[in-house]
Amino acid sequence: MSAEVRVSLPLKMHQGTHYQVFGDTTKPTIVLVHGVGLDHTMWQSQVRSLTSNYQVLTYDLTGHGLSQHATPATDLATLAQQLLQLMDHLQLPKVNLVGFSLGGLVARVFATAHNERLNSLVIMNSVFNRSAQLRSAILYRIAQVDQHGPSANIDQALERWFSPAYARANPAYMVQLRNKVLNNHRPSYSRCYRLFGEGDNAAAAQLDQISCPTLVMTGALDPGSTPTMSHALADKIEGASTHIITAARHMMPVENANQVNQCLADFLARHNL
Is pTM, for the whole model, over 0.85? Predict the structure, then answer.
């Protein structure tokens, strides 16, 4: 049975960042950082699983959800600074940080700059050092998004994110998610999609500064954040481990929630976190 989720209401804002806190504030904190075009609600399954043993903090990245819009100056460093300011506001000296896709890039940049604020790091379904073919494909999609906004490639994205079986079995959710992406603030989406598209080697030269326990995970069938990338990224971080979920695509926290939740629990338990 899923753990009961206790919500701190009302939904809260700090310096333009919309956030939510779940669970017992006396327990260790896990921060979950979502992907491009999404918001904090993508983590519902993880919140239900984790709140029995942790306080869970979710929030909307700048340019997403109810947080302030992105600007042309928004970059991965400012997104990492957003997280730092939120942690300081909530008086969280150290956290376990989990980042998905774009959130994985933010987590990576944060970890290289503020490793002392982390108990652990999990980078999930996130890109690293794209091949020439994948780089060409993402640059084409960036140009499409700049021209047409979120509608440019949403249907192709959903095909990459989910298995056909999951999409057929969950039509209402697929419509809801599609509409969520389409309803993004267009300039913010374009800016953040570019960060996702061009940021695969962000902080690559500083990865050796990460010393906290680190897990890099992805799906065996994720076409954009491949197992090869995950292994290569883990090899750059001292002591990092990898976990590849069989038959999983990009949106593992949703489609493969039970496996993701178990993997997170095992990783945290292994390091007594």
Answer: yes
Q: What is the pLDDT of residues 149-199, one digit of tens each?
A: 999 989 999 999 999 999 999 999 999 999 999 999 999 999 999 999 999
Question: Residue 242 sits in a domain of what CATH number?
Answer: 3.40.50.1820
Under a CB-based contact definition with an 8 Å cutoff, are residues 222 and 123 in contact? no
- How far is it, in rounded angstroms, from Cα 74 to Cα 192? 8
Which distant-in-sequence residues (6+ apart) come within 8 Å of 140 by Cβ? none
The 241-245 sheet, strands edge to edge: 12-14, 17-22, 55-59, 29-33, 95-100, 118-124, 214-219, 241-245
Q: Which of 250, 249, 231 is CA-nearest to residue 241?
A: 231
Is residue 179 within 8 Å of residue 36, measured between CB atoms? no
Q: How many domains is the chain built from?
A: 1
Domain presence at residue 260: yes
Contact between residue 110 and residue 205 where contact means Cβ atoms under 8 Å apart: no
Residue 6, in any domain of the structure: no
Q: What is the extent of the structural domain holding 228?
A: 12-270
Asked if residue 57 lies in contact with residue 108, where contact means CB atoms within 8 angstroms, the answer is no
Domain-located, residue 198:
yes
Q: Assess contact for 86 and 16: CB atoms under 8 A.
A: no
